[in-house]
Amino acid sequence: MSRAPNTRKFGEKRDAIVNAASILINDAGVQATTLADVAQAIGLNATSVTYYFPRKEQLVVAVYDETLTLMERMAAEALEQDDPAARLRHFIAAHVTLRKRIRAGERGLTTALSEIRTLDRAAYDALMAHYLRVVDLVRRFFGDWADREERALFSARAHILLEAMMWWPVWSLRYSVLDFSRIEDRLFDILAYGLPTTRGLVDPQQLVGNWRTSDDEQAGQNEAFLRAATVTINERGYRGASVSRIAESLNVTKGSFYHHHEAKDDLVLACFQQSYDRLSAVQIAGRDIETDYWTRLSSVLAELIDLQFFDGTPLLRTTALQALDAEHKEDVVTRSNRLARRFAGMLIDGVADGSVRAIDPLVAGQVLMSTVNSAYDARHWAARFDKSEDAVKTYLSVMAQGMITSSA
């Protein structure tokens, strides 16, 4: 039901409330943001805010919908460009420009979408429908697909591109805004044309290690908690992954949970630690095989993508970062950056042995981290393939071949 006539004054105040809520959610997360906090931020009383948004979740939905509307507009503007290369470049430039504006002091322009999964089903479904409209626009950057296989490839490109743009605000903090134009060029080069010198080369080797979930192995209770928490947080977000829900999935009591973990944040950090330990183990296993460095790197990526698609315990999504306090968030991002730098080191060695193009390895390392992260949300996409290896090969081809397959 409409709360007031659609007047300019009403719209301006509503926009101010949404903007303030966006800033608070970005700074502290959904759970820590209250209607009273939003009211105080713009000099209103809580009653004034509830006139526009009677419930907090309505305001949260409005905040996320504003960001999705912005993403949709950016995608639509990019789609108006003449060819796939121009569309890709325009889309990347729009995201870099947005980050420049935020660095210049503008706030509330966009909100991290990491906690959409915490909303009730109706709100989540509506926002996901909006997000899928964005995905469809980005998928069309690459032209009209000829068949089911090409549509799947274009979907993978869209998914990887969107994830790269959503991860960019996190690692952009490591760069001066004076370097943004160069980063924009390097991002385009990597995403457009891929990594290997022999474009499209995909010949991963099988890696050996113990990072997989074993169906036969009886995990200890602490290990079982980590597995259940990782899956639950990935599916429902931090706020939706209550201690009760995690314990219930294992048919144990909340008391059993607190026997192993003092608080839920401790469990989230342990999940990140386990995920990064597994990712690191795969990196090391691939780094140490005897072959050229692109084959080593593509072997690592293939294993990690397969793990994200099909393993019973995927890696924890980086969306859980948003709910952590600043100190813990910094620790997790630091570990992520170390893994990205290991990817960068492999790329540098690949440039040296001639198997990798002369790309920016630090930028490419971050793109690889976001690509691995994105694969979890592509599980339903991967399940449509008759053979699991075809799903992995198609997804990996985006890094092996790039997103621009012609001279256009």
Rough shape? globular
Instruction: Give me the strand/helix succession.
Output: HHHHHHHHHHHHHHHHH
Oligomer class:
single chain
Mean pLDDT metric = 87
Number of helices: 17
Low-confidence parts: none
Tell me about the largest β-sheet: none
What is the percentage of strand-forming residues? under 5%
Distance between the termini: 49 Å
* Helix percentage range: 55-70%
Structural class: mainly alpha
Count of extended strands: 0
Radius of gyration of CA atoms, rounded to a whole number = 22 Å
Describe this structure in words.
The protein is an all-alpha fold. Helices cover about 65% and strands about 0% of the residues. It has helices at about 10-30, 35-40, 45-50, 55-80, 85-105, 120-140, 150-170, 180-195, 220-240, 245-250, 255-260, 265-285, 295-310, 325-355, 360-375, 380-385, 390-400. The radius of gyration is 22 Å and the shape is globular. Keywords: DNA-binding, Transcription, Transcription regulation. It comes from Qipengyuania pacifica. InterPro entries: Homeodomain-like_sf, HTH-type_TetR-like_transc_reg, HTH_TetR, KstR2_TetR_C, Tet_transcr_reg_TetR-rel_C_sf. This is TetR family transcriptional regulator. Pfam families: TetR_C_24, TetR_N.
